[in-house]
Amino acid sequence: MKKNRFMKKGIKLKNNNRRRLMLKRCHQKVLQRRKLFVTSDMFTQLTRTPG
Predict the structure, then answer these.
(1) Phi then psi for 9, rounded to 5 degrees?
(2) Is residue 12 within 8 Å of residue 19, measured between CB atoms?
(3) pTM of the model
(4) Which helix (H) or strand (E) holds 24?
(5) Percent of the chain with pLDDT over 70
């Protein structure tokens, strides 16, 4: 199993950068969503406290 993994890794080394870029893009999207969620949560909390 481990040997096969290493072999695959050697083959995939060429596409590593592309893969990394994709991951970064996905992560950025997730972060943006999280930020939106957090901001909405904060707004709800702010509106709740005075009421």
Answers:
(1) -55, -45
(2) yes
(3) 0.39
(4) helix 16-48
(5) 65
